[in-house]
Amino acid sequence: MNAKILAIVPAFNECGNIKRTVEEIRKVSPDVDILVIDDGSQDATSQEAFCAGGMVVSLPFNLGIGAAVQTGFKYALEHQYDMALQIDGDGQHDPACIGKLLGPLLRLEADMVIGSRFLEKTGGFRSSFSRRVGINFFVHLINFLTGVKINDPTSGFRAYNKKMIVLFSEYYPLDFPEPEAIVVAQQAGARMVEIPVMMRPREAGSSSIRYLKSLYYMSKVTLAILLLMIRQKKEEA
Q1: Is the pLDDT of residue 144 over 80?
Q2: For residue 2, what are the β-bridge partners?
Q3: Between the CA of residue 16 and those of 47, 91, 211, what are the distances in Å?
Q4: Structural domain that includes position 24
Q5: What torsion, rounded to 10 degrees, do the Cα atoms 104, 137, 172, 30 define?
Q6: What is the secondary structure of the chain as a DSSP string?
Q7: What distance lies between CA 118 and its chain's CA centroid?
Q8: What is the mean pLDDT of residues 180-191?
Q9: How many domains does the chain have?
Q10: Would you state the pLDDT for residue 216?
Q11: Predicted pLDDT of residue 212
């Protein structure tokens, strides 16, 4: 299958990381188009991404990860891409795993593929203990509510087929969207597959998700997931 594939790379103040990310994607997947969504950065993220060979969409101000990723889905739909990759601009996702992510889509085995740090002991970066506690909470919450078990529900290293591009171009969760997006996909009847990938520590800058916000993060995402489930029950009634 000669698929037209877009890499969606959300980035906020990732000068120092984005150049490496774009160059590595181009090296391992030269046929994949790269779209960097500069989410209102106050540094040279957009210039660095463009000089590295990526296409760039610059949002007027910081809208958040969900809006940035949805911008990529809208671009993919408008330009008739068959598949989309989601890969963070901070350099923590290893582009060498792109082929593994795309494999189940190309074999028509899945609609959405999620890269997991926790399926195998790869020796890669696995985040802090407190973050892993939060991740484990969402594993059990999503499994309890939907019957779907994803071992790394906060992973933003994902691949999607055309069905999911259409779905997420219409609606994609705005704040901390990765766990909620799994529920949205499940409600749409998507076939989801999880595969092991390598993660790396960030080389420059700092994460936009601070540990002091972890309780807020967990509460907000839990509420959003519960509201999605309630809405689905009402629609089925």
Answers
A1: yes
A2: none
A3: 11, 9, 23
A4: 5-236
A5: -40
A6: ----EEEEEEESS-TTTHHHHHHHHHHH-TTSEEEEEE-S-SSSHHHHHHHTT-EEEE-SS---HHHHHHHHHHHHHHTT-SEEEE--TTS-B-GGGHHHHHHHHHTTS-SEEEEESSSS---S----HHHHHHHHHHHHHHHHHHS---S-TT---EEEEHHHHHHHHH---SSS-HHHHHHHHHHTT--EEEEE--B---SSS--SS-GGGHHHHHHHHHHHHHHHHHHHHHHH-
A7: 16
A8: 95
A9: 1
A10: 78
A11: 43
Query: Cβ distance 165 to 77 under 8 Å?
Result: yes
Q: What is the mean pLDDT of residues 47-54?
A: 97
The pair of three-digit structure tokens given for residue 74, joined into one six-digit string: 């809208």
Q: How confident is the model at residue 128 (pLDDT cuts 50, 70, 90)?
A: low
The pLDDT assigned to 127 comes to 61
Q: Quote the CA–CA distance of 187 and 235 in Å, as a whole number.
A: 11
> Quick one: pLDDT at residue 211?
46
- Check residue 218 and give its pLDDT: 83
Indicate which CATH number applies to the domain containing 21: 3.90.550.10
Look at 176 and 197; give whichever has higher pLDDT. Answer: 197
Q: Mean of the pLDDT values across residues 49-72? A: 96
